[in-house]
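Sample A.
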Amino acid sequence: MKKQLFLATAALCFGLMATESASAQNDAIVVEEESVSVVDVTNCKTNYAVNGHDNWFIQLGAGISVPMFENELTAGDPKRHITATYNLGVGRWFSPYLGFRFSGYYGAWHWDNVSYSKARFANLNFDFMWDMCNSLGGVNPGRPVSVIPFVGVGGTYVWDIQSAGSNVYRPGQSARRTWALPVSAGIQFRFRLCQYVDFFLEGRASFYGDNVNQAAIDDPIDINIQAIGGLSFNLGGVNYQAYNACKDQAYIASLNNQVNALRGELATTAAALAAAESQLPCPEVQQPDCPEAVAASPMMSTVRFTINSAKISNEEMVNVYNTAEYLKANPDVKVLIKGYADKDTGTAAYNQKLSERRAQAVYDALTKTYGISADRLSIDAEGSSQQPYDVNNWNRIVIFVPGN
């Protein structure tokens, strides 16, 4: 019977999981990229952690209690053995698979022993719980139904014992009350109503010594069967922090790929910059054989523009500022501002005007923004008739050259 119950509950878990997404595979992942060390992860199991304030719950319930005690009354009525029981519990899931709770019960017992007998009891248990569905089929905090077997130990206080069949007496102890230390086992079914509330149905069997009701006859063990239903309130909801080494390593590998891509772009840009500098007209490339070369200075030699635009961007304004600072530090230097346009923008006449607007924008920035004297600056609009660079897009530019 126990084997059939276990197989049935396991089948229920797997049936519920059939509509859920498959869990992560546990295959090894090897990521290998240029300039990146090989990442070899052989354990792809997802691990879970729980914060100290997460996954606490309080349960409130009520149900029935049926004591299976001595039955010496042949004409007794089994129906009157069923009594009401009330339940209050508090617990916590310290992982998606395991949890604990303190669960208290209060009610009455009715049984037949020589005559109709009864007593009241209060019971407190410490239960160790196992979430079968999370363990067998993967963690899902939002699973609609969970199957939770549990085992527990506790203490039971019995009082107001009224039975003509009592035959156990202890020195100094009233025959109307007793203490017992039961062990118990059971199973709970939880039905998710929302993130914070579950409805539960629970069955528990508590095993006592034969004298729990002050009567010792026949079987050495007395059993109390309880069936409880109620609500379980999840304080703060159900939260598990997942960690999967494979996912993290894959993310790190993707970042490394981005680093490699940026390295490649940087190398390409450096090569393009070197090619551009090699094409700069004299005296911007400071070569020993350039008769017009001037002493090296912090002055930036160019201001670049976007297509069909004469507006100086914030990035390029830095170059204008550096040129202004250089001119302030060298009051005898004059500068010719030469504007260019690429060949693909428009007609030669349009490009001539566009290059003039670009040169004028730089002129205005130097004079109006940075206070450079106008008699130290001159403008030359080259249009697209001359192309300083082989790459067409690079010719949307203003170049500073020494003036007269």
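Sample B, a different protein:
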Amino acid sequence: MRIGIDIDGVITNFEQYVLDYFSKYCVENNIEYKINEIDYLTEKTFEVSSDITDEFWKTFLEHYAINEAPRRFTGEVIKKLKQEGNDIYIITARWTTNRDDEIGQKMRNIVKAWLSKYDIVYDKLIFSKGNNEEKVQELIDHKIDLMIEDNPNNIMQLSKIVPIICYNTQYNKHSLGNNITRCYSWYDIYNKIKDKN
């Protein structure tokens, strides 16, 4: 089986990083915020302008990319999946990785070094442009059989063409459908994939 795996929110706990660091950033910079419901978009979660979130990510993206550890047992489970004959495709649309300049190259190198540091094995690393159509095309072009995803828009769009394992978060709790299986940990993912084989 060809398994596609997203990074942010699947391999990492993107949701908790944003809650921790963005609230700290707001307090330290006297930015008023209010959390009513957690959304995939930081500005919606904190009810602030997109300019503020852009400034936050300009400041913290590299810190996040280098320092945020993978979720518990991620590398272990991916290695087991690989050893059992599955092909692993890491498909990410991380901010700036799609740029054709020095900044884009730097972020792509950070991603590669980070995956190596945490011994996360894969057959192919794909830097997607990020929009739904692009990720759909990546899945089609690489004949992906199953995608592990957290982005609610991607989950709904991609589930039209392949089965999706949705890594459970507050921001994707409404992502439901016949082709969507919700999972809560990496060993839960492993168990559900074994059930599909």
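Observation for Sample B: The chain is about 45% helix and 15% strand.
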